[in-house]
From TrEMBL:
This is tRNA (Uracil-5-)-methyltransferase. Residues 39-49 have a biased composition (Low complexity). S-adenosyl-L-methionine binds at residues 354, 383, 404, 452. It comes from Paenibacillus azoreducens. Keywords: 4Fe-4S, Iron, Iron-sulfur, Metal-binding, Methyltransferase, S-adenosyl-L-methionine, Transferase. The active site is at 479 (nucleophile), 479. Belongs to the class I-like SAM-binding methyltransferase superfamily. RNA M5U methyltransferase family. PANTHER family: PTHR11061:SF45, RNA M5U METHYLTRANSFERASE. GO terms for biological process: rRNA base methylation. Residues 72-130 form the TRAM domain. The lineage of its organism: Bacteria, Bacillati, Bacillota, Bacilli, Bacillales. Residues 1-70 are annotated as: Disordered. It comes from the Bacteria.
Length: 523
C-alpha cells in the first residue's frame, strides 16, 4: 500500500456527503411541518427531534474523526515541512499542525519530506527522506563520517550561514527565556579558517575486526565510529592519534572491550601546544598496568619526535568521565607549555584548557573590555578552572581572586600564576556561592565578578550571592545561550541591565556558540 504523505497546509472542510441516490442525509435539510392532527403533530415533532439527534450524532462523529486526523501524528508518518530556523542543537526547526518539528540536517527555507521518529505532546522529531526545495546555504560536508560520529552538526551549512544562525539562536533564547525582544547583540566574531582548530582529541579505542580504531560512539548506540583525519582537529593531533594506533597494533597491546571487560586501552588523548607544536599524550586504561609500557614509549617517541609527555591514566570504573583519578607520567615533562597572548600556561594531562586558542584570545579580549579595569579593582573569577581568565585580567586589576571546586584545577591555576610571573592573583578551592558572601561579610567586596559556568549555567545560590554583593560589573561568559538567558532574567530582576552581548564562534561546524555578556548595576 502506498505510504500516506501529510501536507502541512490547511485542509478544507468536506461538504456533507450524499447517498447513492444523490439525496442529502436526513437532517441535512430543514423540514416544515404542516398543520395536522395533534397526534400526527406529536409524531412529527418526535421524528424531527430524532432526525436532529441523528444529524448531531453524525456531525459529532465527523468532527471527532476530523480532529483525530488533524491532530494525531504517529511514529512512521510521512510529513512535509518548511524549515524556519536552526535550533539550539543545530537541527532544522519547522512546524506541522501547530507542533514544532525538529529535523537533523535540514536548513532554513528548505521544504523537506520527513519521517516522524518521535512524537511528544509539544513537538515531533523527524528524519529527512527527501529535500523538495534545497537551500542555497547547503554545502557538501568534507568529513566522511559527518552525521554519524556526532561531533559536528553544521558541516552541511556554509560558514557565513552558520554565523548568522548562531546570532539568531542567541536572540531567540533571550526572547524566550529572558522576555527581551530587543537585545544589544554585537556581530559574532568568526574565524578566517574554520577548520583544523581543535588542539585536543580524546577518542575511545576499540576494534574493527582485527584493526584498532579510535573515535566516538554513534548517537544512541555502542557502535564506535573510527575518526581518522578529522577536519576540525589540528593536523598534528590527527597525526598523533594515527601513530599511537599503529604502535598499539604493532606491539599487539590489547584495547578494552566494554562488553567482555577485557583488554587495557580505553581512550587515547592527544593535545598539541599551538605555540610550540609539542604533543602531550595520555593513554587511559581499565587496568592498573599498561602492558609493555617500556616498548610502547620507545615506539611512540620514534614515531612522534614532537611528543614531550607520555602519561598513563587509570580509569577502572564505569563512570562516564573520561579520566580516572590517578595519572602517572611514563616519560617526559609533567606539563605542556601553552600561551594565550602574553600569558603562559603549564597544563597537566587532566587540566582543562580552551580547545580553540585563536578564538579564545578574541573571547578574553571581550572579557577584558567588559571588565573595564583601571588597575584599582578587585576581580572575583568564579568557576575559574585553571585560571585562564583571571590571569588574563590580572595585569589590569589590583587583585584577582579565583574560585574553583576541582582541587587539581586550583593547583594548575596557582602553577600557571607562578610560571606567568603574576603575583596579584590568588586561587581558592571551594564554592563561589559560599566564599563570595564570606568575603563580603569581611569587607572584601568585588568591583567586578566574572562567571564562566558549565552548560547548565550558574547555580541559583551564586546568582543570589552576586546580587547581594552588588559588584558594579558582572561579566558572564557562557557556552549555552539558553541558560545564559535564564540566568540573565534573574540578574535583570536583581538590579542589573545588559549593556551588550558579544558572541564568539569558538567551535565552527558545530551548533555551539560562546558569549561574553556585560551586565552593570542600574543604580
Amino acid at each position: 500500500m502506498a505510504e500516506k504523505v501529510h501536507n502541512q497546509g490547511k485542509g478544507h472542510k468536506p461538504k456533507a456527503a450524499a447517498d447513492k441516490s444523490g439525496r442529502k442525509p436526513a437532517g441535512a435539510l430543514s423540514t416544515r411541518l404542516h398543520a395536522a392532527h395533534p397526534k400526527q403533530q406529536q409524531q412529527g415533532k418526535l421524528q424531527k427531534a430524532q432526525g436532529k439527534e441523528r444529524k448531531a450524532g453524525r456531525q459529532q462523529r465527523f468532527t471527532e474523526k476530523s480532529a483525530a486526523s488533524a491532530e494525531t501524528v504517529k511514529t512512521g508518518d510521512r510529513i512535509v515541512v518548511t524549515i524556519k530556523r536552526i535550533g539550539i542543537n543545530g537541527e532544522g526547526v519547522g512546524y506541522y499542525r501547530r507542533k514544532a518539528v525538529f529535523i537533523e540536517g535540514a536548513l532554513p527555507n528548505e521544504v523537506v519530506k520527513a519521517k516522524v521518529v518521535k512524537v511528544e505532546p509539544g513537538y515531533l522529531n523527524a528524519e529527512i527522506t527527501e529535500i523538495e526545495k534545497r537551500s542555497p546555504q547547503r554545502q557538501d560536508p568534507p568529513c566522511p563520517v559527518y552525521g554519524i560520529c556526532g561531533g559536528c552538526q553544521l558541516q552541511h551549512m556554509t560558514y557565513e550561514s552558520q554565523l548568522q544562525a548562531k546570532e539568531e539562536i542567541i536572540r531567540e533564547s533571550f526572547q524566550r527565556y529572558a522576555k527581551l525582544q530587543e537585545l544589544p547583540l554585537r556581530p559574532i566574531l568568526g574565524m578566517d579558517n574554520p577548520w583544523g582548530y581543535r588542539n585536543k582529541a580524546q577518542l575511545q579505542a576499540g576494534y574493527d575486526g582485527e584493526d584498532i580504531v579510535a573515535g566516538l560512539y554513534a548517537a544512541g548506540s555502542h557502535r564506535l565510529i573510527d575518526i581518522s583525519g578529522c577536519p576540525i582537529q589540528h593536523p598534528v593531533v590527527n597525526h598523533a592519534i594515527e601513530q599511537v594506533k599503529e604502535a598499539l597494533e604493532e606491539l599487539r597491546i590489547p584495547v578494552y572491550n566494554e562488553r567482555t571487560r577485557e583488554g587495557a586501552i580505553r581512550t587515547i588523548v592527544a593535545r598539541v601546544g599551538q605555540a610550540t607544536g609539542h604533543v602531550q599524550l595520555t593513554l587511559i586504561t581499565a587496568t592498573d598496568r599498561l602492558p609493555d609500557s617500556r616498548r610502547l614509549v620507545e615506539e611512540i617517541r620514534k614515531r612522534l619526535p614532537k611528543v614531550i609527555t607520555i602519561a598513563h591514566n587509570i580509569h577502572k570504573g564505569k563512570s562516564p568521565l573520561v579520566f580516572g583519578n590517578k595519572t602517572v607520567v611514563l616519560w617526559g615533562e609533567e606539563r605542556l607549555e601553552e600561551s594565550l597572548g602574553d600569558v603562559r600556561f603549564a597544563l597537566s594531562p587532566r587540566a582543562f584548557f580552551q580547545l580553540n586558542p585563536e578564538q579564545t584570545v578574541k573571547l578574553y579580549n571581550a572579557v577584558q573590555e567588559a571588565a573595564g579595569l583601571s588597575g584599582s579593582e578587585l576581580v572575583v573569577d568564579a568557576y575559574c578552572g585553571t585560571g585562564t581568565i583571571g590571569l588574563w585580567l590580572a595585569p589590569f586589576a589590583h587583585e584577582v581572586r579565583g574560585i574553583e571546586l576541582i582541587p587539581e584545577a586550583v593547583l594548575d591555576a596557582r602553577d600557571n600564576a607562578k610560571s606567568t610571573g603574576v603575583d596579584n592573583a590568588r586561587f581558592y578551592e571551594g564554592r563561589a556561592e559560599q566564599l563570595l558572601p564570606e568575603w563580603v561579610g569581611r569587607g572584601i567586596r568585588p568591583d567586578v565578578v566574572v562567571v564562566d559556568p558549565p552548560r547548565t549555567g550558574c547555580e541559583r545560590p551564586l546568582l543570589d550571592a552576586i546580587i547581594k554583593a552588588k559588584p558594579q560589573r558582572l561579566v558572564y561568559v557562557s557556552c549555552n545561550p539558553a541558560t545564559l538567558a535564564k540566568d540573565c532574567q534573574v540578574l535583570l530582576g536583581g538590579g542589573y541591565r545588559i549593556e551588550w552581548v558579544q558572541p564568539v564562534d569558538m567551535f565552527p561546524q558545530t551548533a555551539h556558540v560562546e558569549c561574553c555578556s556585560l551586565l552593570v548595576r542600574k543604580d
